[in-house]
Amino acid sequence: MDILQTLYNEIIGFLGVSQVWEILKTGNYSSFTTYEGIVALIYPIIPLLILLEFILGLVYKKPQTKVYKVNFLIYIFNRFIGRFIAIAMVVLIIGALQSYALFQTEMTWYWFIYGYIIWEFGHFIYHYLGHKVRLFWCLHSTHHAPEEMNLSVTHAHFFLEAPYADTIRTTVCILLGVDPALLFLIMFIDGTYGAFIHVGENLMKNGRMGFLNKIILTPSHHRVHHAKNPLYMDTNFCNLLNIWDKLFGTYQNEEADIAIEYGITREINSGNFLDVYFGEFVALFKDIARAPGLKNKLLYTVMPPGWSHTGEHQTAKIVRNAHLQQNIPSQKKVAKV
């Protein structure tokens, strides 16, 4: 019975309906008008969309079973080790750094806008480093390994990536004065939207979302981010607001004549959990072992993926710029990332 109860709790936890169920049992439906009630209603949306997306994949005969299988294993593995590693990184940083903030915001609409812009800046830094520093790429590559896009990809993360990401994002926000309560609200909204932008073609064929494609980062933009096409590599690092990508020259629209190829450039068995989860670490260790001298060994950990001690670099920046020079030389103000 304990096993069945544990399984039931895991299913309820994944679907995110426990809070809604508790409110329904009390009969106090007015609770849905409170912040906690609204959160309880929003939280199950993504898990339910994942189920709908999976069902539609079966209907359209595009089940993407390999992606769902591996991402499900990643979700289970991360849940298992999460029981033994409880890293309250956000709380620790707030406690350690809040007294050093340049100033302090409040829970108002205009500070919310400010806070969201700052959060996106922190997210940009973490995400950019995740693509440009080889060791951080080892943490982030699990998320890019799937060769098809669907909502289950939002669960494809190496278990140490979240603490690393939250360390950077929270540090930036707290030092720049974002109130902790405001920060938690932004994190909830951004986390929900960040899951939604992984929606696949089975559920949303055109991910541009109409006029919004020119205002915010849409699923179309995030599909570009997950692509390994030379034009699309290392672009669209933001989550919702695209101001930092545009400011730093990493913004890229989805081109109608360039079909997205998902995945990473390393040859990988995307249906193999071990290769998806640990493969980049293995590749890094092999490069370090072959590299001559301590300096080169250290450089492999901090230089971008594709860097080589031989000078025959194949980083995303080099590959993308070569593609741009060969294929669209007339494009004005080409983004160099």
What features would you describe in this structure?
InterPro entries: Fatty_acid_hydroxylase, Sterol_desaturase/TMEM195. The chain is an all-alpha fold. It has a domain of 231 residues. 57% of the residues lie in helices and 0% in strands.
Give me the secondary-structure category. mainly alpha
Q: What's the β-strand tally?
A: 0
- DSSP strand (E) fraction? under 5%
Radius of gyration: 21 Å
* Poorly predicted residue ranges: 330-335
**Helical residues, percent:** 55-70%
Mean pLDDT: 87
Number of helices: 15
- What overall form do the CA principal axes indicate? globular
For the biggest sheet, the summary is: none
List its traits.
globular; 57% helix; single chain; 15 helices; disordered C terminus; 0% strand; mainly alpha
Short description:
By secondary structure, this protein is mainly alpha-helical. It is built from 15 helices and no strands.
How is the secondary structure organized here?
Blueprint (H helix, E strand, L loop, with lengths): L1 H14 L2 H9 L8 H8 L2 H15 L5 H18 L6 H9 L11 H24 L1 H11 L16 H15 L4 H17 L22 H7 L17 H6 L24 H18 L2 H10 L13 H12 L10
Organism: Arenibacter nanhaiticus
Subcellular location: Endomembrane system
Protein name: Sterol desaturase/sphingolipid hydroxylase, fatty acid hydroxylase superfamily
